[in-house]
Design goal:
Blueprint: H1 3-28, H2 37-47, H3 51-77, E1 92-93, E2 96-97, H4 102-112
Antiparallel strand pairs: 1-2
Length: 115
C-alpha cells in the first residue's frame, strides 16, 4: 500500500461513506421515531430547516470529517503536535512507512472531490 492509496481508501471510508450515512439519516429519519435523545434533537432541528439550509448542514458534516481526519493525519505526519508528546509517530503497512505527507495528500484529494 502506498501513502496515496491509503489516503484514497481513508477518504472513502471516513468521509464519503459516513457522509452518505449522515445524509440518509438526516433526510429520511423521522424525529418522532428517534429513541436517542441526541438524534431526536438533531433531527428536530434539521426538519425545521429549508432545503438549502439542510444541504449546508450536510456539507458541514462532510467538512468536519475532512478537517478531523486531516488533523489526525497531521499528528501521524508530525506536522501537528500533541501537547506533552516528545516522540515520533509512525504509520506503516508491512515494512513500508506511510507517514510524512499523509495530511497534504488527504487534503489535496478532498479538494479534488469537493462538491
Amino acid at each position: 500500500m502506498t501513502p496515496e492509496s491509503f489516503v484514497s481508501k481513508l477518504n472513502v471510508a471516513v468521509v464519503e461513506e459516513n457522509n452518505a450515512i449522515y445524509r440518509a439519516l438526516l433526510l429520511n429519519a423521522d424525529p418522532s421515531g428517534a429513541s436517542d435523545p441526541y438524534w431526536k434533537r438533531v433531527l428536530t432541528v434539521f426538519s425545521d430547516l429549508n432545503s438549502d439550509q439542510r444541504e449546508v448542514l450536510i456539507e458541514l458534516t462532510r467538512q468536519v470529517a475532512i478537517d478531523t481526519t486531516a488533523n489526525v493525519l497531521g499528528v501521524i505526519d508530525g506536522t501537528c503536535a500533541l501537547e506533552g508528546i516528545d516522540g515520533e509517530f509512525r504509520l506503516t503497512f508491512g515494512a513500508r512507512n506511510l507517514a510524512g505527507e499523509l495530511q497534504g495528500l488527504f487534503l489535496e484529494r478532498a479538494e479534488q472531490l469537493a462538491p
